[in-house]
Amino acid sequence: MLLEMKGVEKRFGGVTALRQGDLEVRAGEVHLLMGENGAGKSTMMKIIAGMQKRDGGQILWQGKSVDFSNPKEAAQVGIAMVHQESLLAPHLSVAENIFLGREIAGPFGTVNRRKMLAEATRLIAQYGFRLQADWMVGRLSPAGKQLVEICRAIQNGTSLLIFDEPTSSLSEAETHEVFRIVRELRERGTGVIYITHRMEELRSVGDKVTILRDGATVHSEALATLTRDRMIQYMVGREVNAIYRRDPLPPGAPLLEVTGLSTKTLLRHISLTIRAGEIVGLGGLMGAGRSELCRAIFGLDPVETGSVTVCGKRVSLRNPREAVAAGVALIPEDRQRTGLARELPISWNVTMANLEAVSPGGVIRHAEEARATQKAIDRLRIRCENGKQRAGRLSGGNQQKVVISKWVNRGARVFLFDEPTRGIDVGAKVEVFEVMDQLAREGAAILMVSSELPELLQVADRILVMSQGHLVGELPRGCSQEDIMRLATVPPASGETLQ
Amino acid sequence: MIKRLLPFLALLILFVVLSVASPSFLTSQNLSSVVRQTAVFNILALGMTLIIISSGIDLSVGSIVALGGLAGTMAMAKGVPIPIGVLLGIATGFVCGFINGMLITQLRIIPFIVTLGMMGVLRGFALIISDGMPVHDVPKGFQYLGEGTVLGFPFVLLVLIVCAVIVHFILEHTRLGRYVFAIGSNPDAAIYAGIPVNFHTVAIYALCGGLSGLAGLIEASRLSTGQPTAGQGYELQAIAAVVIGGGSLRGGEGTVIGTLVGGFIMGLLANGSDLLGINPYVQQALIGAMIIVFVAVDELRKRKSHS
User: Fold this and answer.
1) What does each C-alpha distance from B230 to A431, B33, B96, B117 come to in angstroms?
2) Chain A partners within 8 Å of B196 (Cβ)
3) Given B176, B177, B182, which is nearest A352 (Cβ)?
4) Looking at the predicted complex, does its ipTM rise above 0.95?
5) Global pTM?
């Protein structure tokens, strides 16, 4: 037994983040840690890695009781963590980042760059990473940065490595790369704890699963015997209809028509039509151009050729203002950065895209704004204290509903949902789907980008697939994940073209 | 709530302490002089509040004070009626602010750099048009702006209150104000929501410029000369007032009332130190330290409420 946690507790002020954290990890085992947002996974891992002090309970490391007060102490016994968001210095090289804080010293307090470079090169070669020790970290892709984080973690003979959602920003191919590394670590006898939200990807790597709910360990079992449905049940504590099914509607008039859209960077002659009442899925690999298509339609990226027609009117694609005025809404992939003003009240977020309606002559009518906000809160069932609460205080699912309500309040007709369920709890995902369905029933046209194939299959009426900037095909409702993947991985030249 | 209370409380305590400690503090003559002394940078701080909430900064306001004051007094010296001269000074400031806003939005350079550059450009311009010499022959009536009294109160207090009410109304009750918060809180979200971000950015810099022009005229009126070197360092006083009053340089936070309280705290600290015979060198250090204390307490409070 490598690590044993028994009844570990952690409180922040009056809030209990962890009340009964139990976990057993063996050497050479890949242990998946699952649970909804706020279940206490990250807190538990931070305690193991010495980033936070526990308030109660016991931790045994190789049978001996331990109590780390900082990450350095944890690293000394061989525990390291790969973080979800990159904690690297972008202006330093790969080697310098790997050895950050534990530089190989030269004489007179200088740093022995040459030796660090050589050591880093050796490490990279040993695991076969596609990296070079002298590359600048700021220029690397998210996956590259992840690799540097991993190098950092395994640099001095780690025996327990913790991954906090390592694949949330990675493409398919890069995810496989991470899995390969995890398997290799397992074969070398390293214990691995792996936090993840994506249920589909873990089958191929995990040995055992521990599930947390509301700050307590609720279940632990071998992955092979645990079904997906039971896993969800343990995570949310009740039976959830995770298999959402939408009844399609007879489509109405075409609301969004894109013809021959190309951008300088990626998109090539994209044409599509979405009708009122339709939810059209958009599948493809990372970098296929799905988000870029949304951005181009919304006027965020410059367009080279092609046209977009919304509700029968041609829209110029110079800036989001014109798209918004025409009735287009974008629910962006990166909610925190581009969707939500976190520090501002919910009501201000709700009315942000349609402030004119409650401010005739430029003067805001606060009562009308409150009414519009309450309507949005009721309609989308946003769980909050009241409209004055800061938007950033809400859970991920409710934050997403606030972003959507901004567009509902505007009366948008064409909705571009870019990864609408990213970072959202299982229960809240279904609610987001229900909102989308409701919008479609009221006559909106919806384009939904998702990397979660099961979601696309559940929600979309038909699925368009992109590859390398081209629209390579369309699949009907009821197709399989394999159908989508086959299209998505075919190079566009030999792929089917859209009729 | 506590956040809004803290500067208020500090102002109140300062007021009570000074009333007890110095018999000459609570006299109408002394309080009038505090108001007159603080009016100029309080008005600057009002414009700065808008800009700081939008997560910008304007370092050029001190130079606009000089240029606005000069434009007004030079016109008056040539025989232009006083009200027209005042309007001319405000318009000069407005144009300067407009240029700031255009440079920031069109060249996409951060406000710190643009206004740092403009601080030098406008100061140089003020020196060039005046040939480095103060403008002396201003009409007698012009002094009323800075030194006059209405019903026993300084006229500048009235001007300050009117400006404060206008800026408060803009911030809390108009679309422009709401967009200032939106832009400062999350500029990307503002763009994604279809808000005309550039237009509103230019608008607030122009507004701040206009207020700075007005402040410049008050300064000129108090000195009864147009000085090309007026207003040096005032930008930092204005920023300090906003920050003490709870404005955040990260944007999205700030109130007019907070700013005024911040401005008066600084005014009372200076006045109190004078009355109590504290060495002016110590005064400087004291006021500097207060800025850090206020912001530190505010940060601690925020950290507590976040964890």
Assistant:
1) 61, 19, 16, 18
2) 321
3) B182
4) no
5) 0.79
